[in-house]
Design goal:
Helices cover 56% and strands 8% of the residues. It is built from 6 helices and 9 strands; from the N terminus they run E-E-H-E-H-E-E-H-E-E-H-E-E-H-H. The strands form 4 sheets. A 3-stranded antiparallel beta sheet has the order 2-1-3. A hairpin with a 7-residue loop joins strand 8 and strand 9.
Amino acid sequence: MGYDIERFVGYVNEGLLCSICRDVLEDPLQAPCEHAFCTVCIHGWLVHHSNCPEDRQMIDVSLLRPLYRYMKNDLNRLQLHCKNREYGCEMVCSLESIDRHERECEYSQIPCSNAGCTVQIERRNLDGHLAVCEYRSRECPNGCGYTILSAEDTQHNCVAELRTELELLRSEMICRVEEAKHEMESRLDSQRRHMVQKESILQNEIEELKSQMSRMMSDVRSLMAAERQHRQELEQAELEKRELMELLRGLQKDCRLTTTEGSRKSTNFRPLARLESVKRKPREVTVI
């Protein structure tokens, strides 16, 4: 439905009227034949018809388009009275801003916010009504803290209300304690599982280190045994070297003492016999 034409100030162009309700266009849509309608009006029309209500041309909801810009601008510039004029509002504003004004208008009729109250009252008088509304909420004058919502509540039992409130607080506290307990148990279980997993990893690492240490000790023992054998071989070679050196010195001494050819033959025979003895000796040592 459109805006009542009686609310507008001055002349309203015929092209800005809905072809169905004949009021000023509200949320307008335009058909391909350029006739304009209120959105609600044309949608309701097309439920039972499939043509334009003006020239009977075939139309469909999918063919409807927004109003031309120049027509939209002309529509928004129209001046009209607030819908609360009958209650005393004298505001006249453009159609473009009328909705914003009416949402905040002090003369708007709004319902009382107290539960159970059916009074409709002007926005500007709402605070005064709430102060005297029989459905207003207020605390018990005896100081128990109970909120009185109706006349029957004025006869309530303060002790019973305090007990009820205490039970509610106690139940809430128990629930919170249980929730905290469950949360702590969950955290402890999670930490325990993490620690067990970590311990297993560390144990595996320790076993791996022990295995590596055992292999290293075996390698060290093998190296030490090889070193001892090498040392013995060096000592044996050193002993043979000394014996050879003594033999060479003996040969040199014998050569200097030789003065005749016969004596040289005799001398040559003796060193050779000694050299043969030295060659046999290492074999005996090796066997030992």
